[in-house]
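Recall the central idea of this unit: under ordinary conditions, the amino acid sequence of a chain determines the structure it adopts. In this exercise we apply that idea directly, starting from the sequence alone.
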Amino acid sequence: MTESRFVLTKLSRIMPIVAGCALLAAASAHAETDTCDHAGALGVARTVEIDTSSGGIYGALSTHTTKTSLLGKKEVVLTFDDGPMPWITRSILETLDKECTKATFFSVGRMAVAYPEVVREVMARGHTLGTHTYSHPFNMPRMKAEKAQAEIENGFAAVAAAAGQPIAPFFRFPGLADSSALISYLGSRGMAAFTVDIVSNDSYIHSASELTRRTVAAVEAHKGGIVLFHDIKGTTAKALPGILAKLKDRGYTVVHFKAKAPAQPKVDLLAGYAQRIEKAVAAKTPGTKVPFYGSTGPTAKGTEAVTPDGDAAQAAAGNDEAAPMPAFIRGGLDLSQKANEEHPAVSAFPGGIPMRGDEPAGFLQGARGAIWDSLHGWTPDGLHSTPQNTPATR
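Accordingly, the structure predicted from this sequence is:
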């Protein structure tokens, strides 16, 4: 049996483990229904199947040579990074469903392990699922090669285990901080990297109307392209319906990227994450994992999604009562190993807060609430920058 077939066999065996047979049946039924009965919906203009066997990188925002664009004028690809986060991701999924359109989600491994049921919902609704490392380190090119590669491999294994089925060999570097060595490594594994053409800047903008205005203006300026959003931002969930409506009114169409062949996670890692998820599901262990690079926590009840016009909107506004900042942010970051181990939202693979390569953590000391929403390397106009002492954005 080839490694590829062995991986697919392993994946098929862990499907019931991740979310249960009932959810699997519901997911399959949903996935098979690919018709849209919403009059005037944005829909999907065309689907592009991508052969990642030769690797490479797609999108314009890179210092390295990228693949020829697969998009024409007034075509966009919707992408969402950093999730899943149930109370945000589910709202985004509902909006996409209402417009009968599809997106690509680049999920973080440890978030996928925390919320496997949401990962499965992304797949069940027909979206493409890629990865965004295991723990979201800020500057992978500064990491030792084996650690950076481990982030890639653990990310793919964790997300695939959470999905309970094959995922796309699509990868996005945190902060879009790529390197020729890591792009080559991805290629050796039959994986492709995806950067972006358009940055929505949803990491900075807290007004849904302003995010809508800015995103549409950026798309218009580029005449389309791969658009970057984050499915951990309440403002994004609130603004998305308006963004899609305005793009549709301006004649833009959505292209859905799919993979010609699935990713092939390393079997030992895949089995390990499947076992970990199985134990958590069996124990019915409730949890609320909020990534320290995200801003919107759950509402008081902890389960309802942030909606474009719902009561949970206060969470998107950063209200501390609705979306409490963890003490490690509100009172200043405790960068000790003990704090990292005690707070699951900070723990990173293989341990500790992922910093910029080998730089000291001093630039984060004494941080307060501003860090909760400003650990970014994006300038206000959306151009990519990586200042000397500023961690890059997602």
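The chain is about 40% helix and 10% strand.
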